[in-house]
Every structure is written in C-alpha cells, then in structure tokens.
Amino acid sequence: MTSSNRMIGVDVGGTFTDIFVLDEATGTAEVAKVPTTRPDQSGGFLSGINSRVDDLSTVSVVVHGTTAGTNALLERKGARIGVITTMGLRDVLEMRRRDRPRTWGLRGNFTPVVDRALRLEVPERTLADGTVRTPVDLDAVRTAAQQLIDEGCLACAILFANSYANGENERAAVSAVREMWPNAHVSASSEILPEIREFERFSTTALNAYLQPEVSGYLARLETALKEGGFAGEFMIVQSNGGVMDVDTAAKLPVRTALSGPAAGVIAAGYIAEAAGFPDVITGDMGGTSFDVSLIAKGTSMLSPQTSIDFGMVVRSPMIEITTIGAGGGSIAWVDKGGLLNIGPESAGSTPGPVAYGQGNTRPTVTDANVVLGRIDPDNPIGGKLDRLDVEAAKAAILEHVGRPLGMDALQAAEAILRVANSRMAGALRLVSIERGFDPERFAFMPFGGGGALHSGAMLAEVGLARAIVPRYPGVTSAMGCVIADMRQDFVQTINSVLAGIDLQSLTGFMQSHVDSGLATLDAARTHFERRDTEFTLDMAYLGQTHTVPVTLPVTVENGVVTPPTEAQIADAFDAAYRATYGRLLENGTRRVINLRSAITGRRPRFDLATLAPKGGSTEQAFRGTRQVHFDGIWHETSLYDRLALPVGAEIAGPAILEQPDTTVLIEPGLVGKVDAYGNTLIERASA
C-alpha cells in the first residue's frame, strides 16, 4: 500500500496492542497484533504501526483507543496532586456519598487520590443561586499553590462550592494559579463539569488532575515519535462516549479517556452488526485481562451519565455503558481454601502470559484450558516467544493447581475452568440484558477480542441468545472502531430552575455557546465530516424528586445558530418522556429543569464493510485437515479451516475450528457457521 489516505486505528489492551490499517482508496485493510509493552505502552504502539507501515507520511489519520487512563486509575498510579478548595470542603472527596466499599459490617476503608495534607482551603463562597457572598482571597490561593508546588505536586485541582452556578471566584483563582504553576496541569471544576452536586464535580475534576501528567506525557511521547517517523496527519484519541477528540483536548481532559479502548470496540461492533442486519446486539470483548460486555439496542449504544471506575472514584462524563469482569484469556484459575474453583481477577497479562507461552508463568489460565482441550492450535500461537505452544506444561499446571485439589484429571480440570469462565461471562451478559428488561432471544452476541470467539457457543447455550456474529477481524475490532468512530463533544450546564417562567434567553445562550465551542473543535480538525449533528437533552423532574428523566429537545440548528425552544415545547417533551418512563404524570406537579446536556457530533465517513469480504475461494481450498478437540468429556474429530479463505455463503457444520492470525473461532457440535456478504461468520443452532 503506497497511497496517502491510509487511516490507522490502534487499540492498546492489557495483553496485546492491535493495529487496523485501512486504505480508503482501495478499501483494503491490514491487521497486526503485537504484545503490549509495560510500563510505557508507547513501545508496543509504535512497533505495531511499524510492522504494517514503512512510511508514516502516507498516513492521514491515526486514532488511538487507550487504556492508559483506566490503568492509572485502577492501579492508583496517577500523579501526586493537590487540591485548593472552599473553606470547609476539603473532605468532600473523602466523605463521598457516605457509602462504603462493603455494604455489611462496620469497617470500610477508602483512600482518596489526594492526601488530606494536600487538600488546602481558602476563603471564598458562592451561593447556590450564583450570588458571591465572599470574594476569593487570591493571596491565600497563591500561598496554597506555592505550598503544593513545594510539596512536589505535579498537578492541581481547584474545587469551589457552587462554581457551576457562577464561576467568577473559581476563574479568578485558576488564573492566579496558572500564572505560577510550573506546567499546564491545572484543572478547574467549572471548566470540566459545570454541573450541580459537589462530590461528583469534585471527584471528576480531581481524577482529571490525577491523570493529566501521566496521560498528557504518554500522548506527547506518541505524537513526537509519530512526527519523527514522518507522520504529518491528524492524531486523535477515542473518548469514553464512543467519539474521538484531538490530542490537545485529550491532554487537557484525560478523564474522558477512562474507558477509551472498550468504547471503540462497541462502536465497531454496532456498525458491523447493523450492516449485517442485526441492530440488536450484545458485545463481548474478551482480551487477555478482562471480558467487557455492552448492549446495543436498535443500533444505539447505551450511554451512562456517570461511572465508578473503582469504589469512590466517580467520573461524571457520558460513557458507553460497559460491564467488565476479570475473565480474560490470561485470567488465572485457582482453588480457594473452601475447595471452590475461581477464575481471575488476577491475570497473567502479556508478560509472562499463559503457561503455554513459556515465559515463566506456572499458574494455569483460561487460554491454557483452551490449549489443553485442543481448541487453540499449538503450532500457530497468537502471542508469546515460542514457535509452538507448550501443551504439556499447560496440562501439568492445570493438574497441579486445579486437578489434584479437586480430584480431577487434567482434561476434567480444563473443562471445569472453561465452565466457570463461561458461567461468569454468561452472568455479565444476563446483567446487561435480562436484568434490564431486554429479551436475549432478540439479540445477537458479537464476540471479539482475541479470545471471545472461542466462547460464543457457550454463550448461546447459557443465555439463550439467537445467534452469534463473529466479525471478519474479531481480534482487532476495537482498533477498527478507532477508524470509524465519529468526533463528538459533550457539554453540560446546570440550569436548576422551575419550567414555568424559565429564562429561555439564558437557556438558549448556553446551547449556543455549546454549539459554538463544539463546531469550532470540528472546524479545527483536519478530518472530513459527512455531516454535523447537534442534540440537546434536559435532565428534568418534578419539584421534590431526586431522580431525573432525560428529555430530548426538538431544537434545530441552522448555519450554527440555535432556534430557541418554547416553554410549551419543553413541557410537552417532558410529559412524553416522563409518561414513557413511569406510565403516568403527576397532576399539579411543578416541572423542574436541572441540567442542559449538549452533544455536537461530526459524522466521519464510514468505509464499506463489504470491501473486507473474501473474494472468490472455496470451502475445499480453505480446508486445513482435522484435529482432535475435546467437547463435553469426549474427543471429537474436528474440521479445521483457514477462516479468511472461506468464500461468502460457505456453511460449516460443527464441530469445526476456523483459524486466522488474530483469533480462533470455535463452532461447537450442534451449531453451524455461515459466512455473510461482509465476511462475518454467523453462528446459529443447526436446524433439526
């Protein structure tokens, strides 16, 4: 490939870094998978790109889905930071919502990301209606900032009471601190989340500061290395909401990357499934470390307004709703003191990896169980340093750590490991479907990630799903999602007013400022957009209620100018949304507007998935022989196929294994796999 309009998606996972290279001119794609490098992930990022692209000047866009922020939060490896806050509020981050890690018992510990000695108070006070009661003492602010600098803080968060209602005091303090702070890492709550509720605003802003030095440094290293390699295109980062942002925005707002990598996979899965004719899909991203599940209904991903990354670490920013469990291919199987078999949460990751990789690990993983049962080809390993996977070492580890403690032989123990792993994965699928009122029979399961397609048959059986759709390149679906994600900016502003007599001019002014800011970001991007969409939603409730309903406003934007809504339009939209949620309205209830949420989206061109479909070929040519594979206590003679060589329309009856460089697809006995027009494999129950 030598054209200059190549797009590259890079997804860095816990075990592997995935690369998806799309040539827009020819519609051809290439994929690569290299081990993730720790602690600095930029090494794997660059070696993955270099394995497929010789000349970076031929690349127009690089889009990156990163777990750098997520890992820094989960592992508590963010920067040493300080907080400057209103007198009396230094402990908001520690008190949270007066919740605790474990519901029962009198003990519970929580360490905030900022030590109490580094949370400093200054005289200032803004009331909830926006009135400034006490102007900010800027001398006290400067003294506090100098103290934090002297204490070795790399970033600072400024968290003032009610700054969402009036940011005057906070803006003055931020300006004073930025003048003297030695770097650009100063986060202000009124800039990051001008929304009511102190703890959520404080937590989101503090976590943003906590991530800034780590994430901005990481992105700067990547950008520098890309430019040194001759890259002159656009470098963008996937956000947790499924959109992308430019690298400068990501460096300022790293908290928006908290679930960046998994979100990219959900975006790609939704696009692939809808093109294939299945708008209702449950995605299952199985990597080396975790299994991430998300539900897409009628082609739309579920967005959650806030997420707890870990206990007490709340991020209030729109994120694709993803349920994560520690059941990846590298998750370690172990027997507890009570004689129960457990999977994870500890993972062998990419280093040392599963026992079969021969890199020093001696404890069995889910991948080792698949290897011992013949489901993974030992002669063509996806990762590791061996030319051939060490099946005997995997078998010995399973026998020692699982078989003997449970009185089983190695094969029984391997099946038990998969049974427990499948049960945990099925539980995650039920959580996002059945437990939220969705009938799984309506949904297809889309497994991706390196290990997901080995477990699709088990998910159909355990959850009652209609079918599975295995995408053409399941191992690099998240990297593909980077390439097709839209550019999206989310904004929020607390209004906190009853609807009757609401200041429509002020409301429209906020909407217009969001549109202006969002469109300016899109204009600054060097990406072509097919169209630009704006969406406005109000969080509304009746006076006295805590929980709100999202109310979509019927507002048009022409030539960048917002048409104001009327009070009656807002009232009608609220009534429709409230009745749809609760089945009735409250007579004589006073309608209240809490927050305005705006989303400005630049729709990037989609590439035609049919270009990934196989051209010609035959089932006979794709046949690679047979291998003994263990199912339900019996060895089965199982047909092996080169999956990428199977033609459109091919039907493969189970038991069969379809192999490709980035994953293995397992078609269990009683199931049949069909190749559709896009190169996906649809796995369904064989008709009697």
TrEMBL record:
Residues 533-678 form the Acetophenone carboxylase-like C-terminal domain. GO terms for biological process: glutathione metabolic process. Residues 201-490 form the Hydantoinase A/oxoprolinase domain. GO terms for molecular function: 5-oxoprolinase (ATP-hydrolyzing) activity. Pfam families: Hydant_A_C (PF19278), Hydant_A_N (PF05378), Hydantoinase_A (PF01968). Residues 8-180 form the Hydantoinase/oxoprolinase N-terminal domain. GO terms for cellular component: cytosol. PANTHER family: 5-OXOPROLINASE RELATED, HYPOTHETICAL 5-OXOPROLINASE (EUROFUNG)-RELATED. This is Hydantoin utilization protein A. It comes from Phaeobacter gallaeciensis.
